[in-house]
Every structure is written in structure tokens, then in C-alpha cells.
Specification:
The chain is α/β, with parallel strands linked by helices and 157 residues long. It has three helices and seven strands. It has a seven-stranded mixed sheet with strand order 1-6-7-2-3-4-5. It starts with 14 loop residues before the first strand and ends in a 9-residue tail after the last helix.
């Protein structure tokens, strides 16, 4: 895997590494569909699955999770994992994501199957999921950044 060691992201989003800046959108602003199917590598260099969905917090307009599809054949029998967006790093050179935990730790997460999704809006489930990936919940991180960043204060007329 080399040495992918981005700085800890304090804004609640995925980190970006690589020089993959070209024409058109990306890598800072991209269509979510272009990221579906991207492979995901663990912190210890193992291919652990692919991005199957990107989940939006519709009320706040933020990305909540990326759903990783692990194993299975043609989508059948695969185990799904909701990974906090801030636990991912997009490598634009290798066109993949890195998740900031080991492959075994990801495998130990029971996840869910395509017919039994968790209630992702449940605060207790969300806090437990973020904790598993050693991240603060995205809504608390973003609120702290917004409150402390003068650039985010409303314009006065």
C-alpha cells in the first residue's frame, strides 16, 4: 500500500490524496455515482470490498456514510458495512478508497445484509458506528467547525 497517511480530517469529510486533478469535476466535488464501485483497501493494505452506496443526510446536506459491499458474488450474499465518510481517504492516483482500520477489524464488524438495513437516522446506532471506526459523529464534528470558523458566519448587512 505504501505510505498513505493523510492528516486527520477535522471537517468531517473524506481526505483526498494523490495528484488526480484533471479537467471537469473532482476530486473536491464529484458526482456520487462516479465513486460507486471504487475498491476499498484497509489500513493494512488488504482489498476489503467496494463502495456500493453513498448515504446522504438529506436534512443537513452532508454525506453520512459510504456503504461497503464485502464479498458475495454479483451482489448476492455480500455483507454490507456503513463506514463513516470521515474514516475514508480517496486516492485519486489509484482510484480507490482507504479505510482507516485493519481488514480484520472490518471483518469483525457484523455489518448488515441488503434486506436488513439498520435505521441510519437512529442516533445510538450512528454513535456506535462512528465509535467503531474511531471517529466523532459527522454532525458533531461539522457543528464544531462551523461554530469556530469565522468564514462560516453569516454575512451581516
Amino acid at each position: 500500500m505504501g505510505s498513505i497517511n493523510p492528516q486527520r480530517n477535522t471537517r468531517g469529510g473524506a481526505s483526498i490524496v494523490g495528484g488526480g486533478i484533471g479537467e471537469g469535476p473532482g476530486p473536491d466535488i464529484m458526482a456520487a455515482a462516479t465513486l460507486d464501485g471504487n475498491k476499498v483497501m484497509s489500513a493494512d493494505g488488504e482489498h476489503v470490498g467496494k463502495i456500493s452506496d453513498i448515504m446522504l443526510d438529506v436534512r443537513s446536506g452532508r454525506i453520512a456514510y459510504a456503504v461497503l459491499s464485502e464479498g458475495g458474488f454479483l451482489g448476492m450474499g455480500s455483507n454490507l458495512h456503513a463506514i463513516p465518510w470521515s474514516a475514508l481517504t480517496l486516492d485519486t492516483d489509484k482510484k480507490c478508497f482507504y479505510v482507516d482500520i485493519s481488514a480484520q477489524r472490518l471483518k469483525d464488524d457484523p455489518g448488515f445484509d441488503k434486506d436488513h438495513w439498520p435505521s441510519m437516522a437512529d442516533a445510538k446506532w450512528a454513535a456506535t458506528t462512528h465509535s467503531y471506526y474511531n471517529r466523532q459523529p459527522y454532525w458533531s464534528v461539522t457543528n464544531e467547525v462551523v461554530a469556530s470558523d469565522p468564514a462560516n458566519r453569516p454575512l451581516e448587512h
